[in-house]
Amino acid sequence: MKNVDKKTLALLVVLIIVVAESLMIMTVLLKQTALMESKLDLLQSKIEALEKHENATAHLHRLSSAVVAVKADTPLGIVWGSGFISRGYIVTAYHVIRNASAVTVYFSDYTYKTASVVGYDLYTDLAVLNATLPSTAKNLDFSSGSTVYAGSRVFVISRRDMQYAVGVGYVASKNRNIRLDEAGLANVAYAIADVIEFDAEVNFGASGSPLINEDMDVVGVVFGMNNVNAGLAVSSDIASRVVASLIENGAYEHPWVGIYYTDYVGGLYIADVIENSPAAETGLQPGDVIVAVNQMPVNVPGDFVIYLERYCSPGDMITLTINRGQLTHKMELKLQARP
Questions:
Q1: How many CA atoms lie within 13 A of 67 on its CB side?
Q2: Residue from 240, 241, 270, 275 nearest 255 by CA
């Protein structure tokens, strides 16, 4: 009986050893399988990234045929910029052609034409030119700036003479308001609204270039750089409205309320009201805080400015929700054109 117990015990020990070794082998195999799957996933992602890069390169090359170089003869000398064909016209930055006695546009097919100014808007630094386009000319369409976010990859296509350059980078921030005087564009306190800030390289002569997203759509128009060399572009949500008006009317009218405001969190704090302005006629007062416009919350002043520029026009009626002391009021205001 004791011998049987020893044999059984020995068999159990052997069985346990075999099972343990099998488990160890299975564990190693599972780890190796997981590692192999991880390597395969990494390889697949690299292949997809390479294909995406190749596709982006091909698309950017194709889009480059719609990008032009702009040369302006100004009292300060020759100014170079870029532009792009949209709706049969050429979109560029206003500061490139400001006070120009002559403007020449250079196309991708190695031809060039004299261009006339259809219209311009100081407050978005946009201008539209008209020139005889080559038969091979392509048009770029505006998409919505809301298709890019902080961290989205973007491209800048610029042109100098007959060569084009592509800057690649990422959106750093959006929904910025950049004062024209701080950007060195004009000695006025108004701001370019709804600006996209990005880190793609902005080459010399890139003002007026299209800012392109990964879907190869125009999401902004480049107008310069800030003090840390980040690129700046007015978003296509604003640019498309302005360009359409410049083509049709030769000018663009911005909505105007007639207030001065200060940096504030929790709304737009009114520092002063301009006499005979829509704000004065409505009864707005210094110290009022606008917390909503047409039921859209206003958390910082930029929210209010961007809403007006994106969705409103002179003559529109807007509903303001304001805090005055401990009380909340709703007020109707009729927008006027910016004087």
A1: 30
A2: 241
Biggest CA-to-CA distance, the chain: 117
CA angle (124 as vertex; 309, 171 as ends), nearest 5:
85
- The tens digit of pLDDT for each residue in 168-220 reads 999 999 999 998 888 888 888 789 999 999 998 888 889 999 999 988 899 99
Domain map of the chain by residue range? Answer: 2-62, 63-252, 255-337
All residues at 6 or more sequence positions from 282 whose CB lies less than 8 Å from its CB, including other chains: 320, 331, 332, 333, 334
pLDDT tens digits, 67-91: 999 999 999 899 999 999 999 999 9
Q: What is the pLDDT of residue 148?
A: 86
Question: What CATH number belongs to 255-337?
Answer: 2.30.42.10
Strand (E) or helix (H) holding 56: helix 2-63
Task: Please tell me whether residue 235 adopts helix, strand or coil conformation.
Answer: strand
pLDDT average, residue stretch 136-146: 84
Cβ atoms < 10 Å from Cβ of 287: 13
CA distance 194 to 178: 8
Task: Identify the architecture of domain 63-252 in CATH.
Answer: Beta Barrel (2.40)
pTM of the model: 0.82
Distance between CA atoms of residues 109 and 167, nearest Å: 21
Please name every residue paired with 316 in a beta bridge, in sequence order, or none if there are none: none
Q: What whole-number distance in Å separates Cα of residue 245 and Cα of residue 247?
A: 5
Residue 245, beta-bridge partner list: none
